[in-house]
TrEMBL record, chain A:
GO cellular component terms attached to this protein's record: cytoplasm
Lyase found in the keyword field: yes
Alphabetic keyword roster: Lyase, Schiff base
Organism for this UniProt entry: Nocardiopsis sinuspersici
SMART domains found in the cross-reference section: DeoC
EC number: 4.1.2.4
Stated name of the protein: Deoxyribose-phosphate aldolase
GO biological process terms held by the UniProt record: carbohydrate catabolic process; deoxyribonucleotide catabolic process
Pathway field: Carbohydrate degradation; 2-deoxy-D-ribose 1-phosphate degradation; D-glyceraldehyde 3-phosphate and acetaldehyde from 2-deoxy-alpha-D-ribose 1-phosphate: step 2/2
Gene3D superfamilies: Aldolase class I
UniProtKB/TrEMBL annotation, chain B:
Signal peptide interval: none
Name this polypeptide is given: Acyl-CoA reductase-like NAD-dependent aldehyde dehydrogenase
Gene Ontology MF, one: oxidoreductase activity, acting on the aldehyde or oxo group of donors, NAD or NADP as acceptor
InterPro entries, sorted: Ald_DH/histidinol_DH, Ald_DH_C, Ald_DH_N, Aldehyde_DH_dom
Natural source organism: Nocardiopsis sinuspersici
Domain Aldehyde dehydrogenase: 31-475
Amino acid sequence: MPVPHTAFAPEATTNRALRAFLHGLPGVDEVGARARAQDLSTRSVKTTAKAQAIDLAISMVDLTTLEGADTPGKVRALCAKAAHPDPTDRTVPRVGAVCVYSDMVATAVDALRGTGVGVASVATAFPSGRAPMEAKLADTRRAVADGAGEIDMVIDRGAFLSGDYLKVFEEITAVKEACGTAHLKVILETGELVTYDNVRRASHLAIRAGGDFVKTSTGKVSPAATLPVTLVMLEAVRDHHAATGRHVGVKPAGGIRTTKDAIRNLVLVNEVAGPDWLTPDLFRIGASSLLNDLLMQRTRLSTGTYPSPDYYTLD
Amino acid sequence: MIFEYAPAPESRSVVTLRETYELFVDGAFTPAEGGEYLTTLNPADETKLAQVAVAGPADVDRAVAAARRAHETVWSRMPAAERGKYLFRIARIIQERSRELAVLESMDNGKPIKETRDVDLPLVAAHFFYYAGWADKLAHAGLGPDPRPLGVAAQVIPWNFPLLMLAWKIAPALATGNTVVLKPAETTPLTALAFAEICQEADLPPGVVNILTGAGETGRALVEHPGTDKVAFTGSTDVGRQIARSVAGTDKRLTLELGGKGANIVYDDAAIDQAVEGIVSGIFFNQGHVCCAGSRLLVQESIAEELMPLLKARISRLRLGDPLDKNTDIGAINSAAQLERIRELTDTGEAEGAERWSPACDLPQSGYWFAPTVLTGVSQAHRVAREEIFGPVLSVLTFRTPEEAVAKANNTPYGLSAGVWTEKGSRMLWTAERLRAGVIWSNTFNKLDPTSPFGGYKESGYGREGGRHGLEAYLG
């Protein structure tokens, strides 16, 4: 008689079961993971492939502003940019979403109505995640009530590093419930998890708890989205799909500033997780300055000359 | 969505091919006395690249005499620091011309530009830099207070890493004060001839390096020539045996770097994604034309079911095609003869009961190509588990316990390389201690470095190349 795989059943979720599952995952060899990411970053993506990659990357950008100094005016300007990244060229696709703090969601929803651009909100006491659970849930509910279609939550890294995987798991499931129909992206803050073994474990924990996306970083901690970290996360969603048939997305965020960085990420998606993931539904890039570089490279590719940065709007 | 990489060919314009190449003897390019030429092809499309002189016995005499003269009158008398300067100069010129040499190597050999650019050429330059540094420090090599050069070295190299094997042979020989007569492989002579030009450019004294092109007969004449003091050979075990016989009874020193059937042992606690990478680079690096290839995968039976789909998915993503395309992972097989051998052995594996698998893969119409292939259900008794295929063909065997892994890994007439994949340090050391192989890679594969000695046990040859140990082969 087959033994039921109780570790997968939510009702049987205990810290001991989670620990056994996560610590039973194959390790990640740091040198090997770096070498693979480096090897893939030598792919040469030119001409038609580059044009395709640039438009795909634009459509995957979560155009982000997460500053203490954010104002409704700043958010509205960002939304205009998100809907029409290049006002002079309507063939440029719109970005995937605009990503703001929860108190700016209403402003963003209003500004983006009818554009097809999504609104994502960071929540759960972003970026540190150090707040009472009630506050994290209230933060989430407010953003969802104001119309956010995507919630970017942070995990409790302290709990994860202390081995309290159940706490991390339960927070994610609770936030997921508070999200209702909104998509949940789970930020692992890999710069604080440090090892690739931790990245793999945290990815599987977030996926298992119901996250729709796993996201590398808040952008407030360095290092943020490095290629090996994204590689390890892509392996996790690939393996989860192979085991369960469910697709979970990946979002590197922080430090992706150039077209070259973005294309390297797309190559990683293509060759590690596979072409299924080459859609804004399953891969996003959290960035702000990246968009203008993509636009400049797009113009360069179609006209043969680099335009001055002054031709691109700041936000 | 399909993300198809557009063609990204490296330009051939950096390479200027001559129609005809002569022998490089005593500092100058001179025709062979027999007037015979052979043609070297681009294995990717079977186009003719150039014709190359075939050296006969009279040419070997000339070259050995020039090398002897250079050794006695110039090279062995020169202050060691001066010898080092020449080697540093050669290393720098190689770096300056590395793009040209990488393209030329890919054209003549069929290996992808990604490898010649990122592996072969950096290692070639590194080898010359490394041994250049040794030239004036030989008294500190642990080989006595005043080790002396042997004299003239006859060196015969294979076609799989043409310029790198040249570097492995020439750099330590020159650093230790020997002069050389080198024969590159019949199918890949062009980078050795480009190296001859580099020797001229570096003002290397005439006769210190002599390059004789030709086929097996030229090689035989060279290794059997009574005027040399040392024979160094890298190639097949069969030819190595013949050379050992011909050198027996002479006072020549001999080093042989021969075949292999490397075991790549994957334990159940291995970092599985990196192990998959290591298996792939172990056997598909350079189309498997690697003597230290991990051609036998020994995977612990308890994870075979989990590992094989990951491995096959990874192999399916390998890009086979134009060696000069920067995104090509698998290039062409070097020659029609080698392709035939790979086909024959792989068919034998299937006939003996192994299950054969290759990814869906379009092979170009012209040229010599073989799809990456995995043979599963292989047992120790199969020819494909015992004989070197020297192509992109992986034989997969399973084991149950560490003892069985080691016993199977060592159950081969060869002993050149092995790889071990485990996250457990004690098991890594336990295994490495028991493997009879010259190179053992821990959680990696096919990593080469000039500071590290390389060579085999058993029928994989004797002597070491590289590192401090590599000096010993050229000092008396």
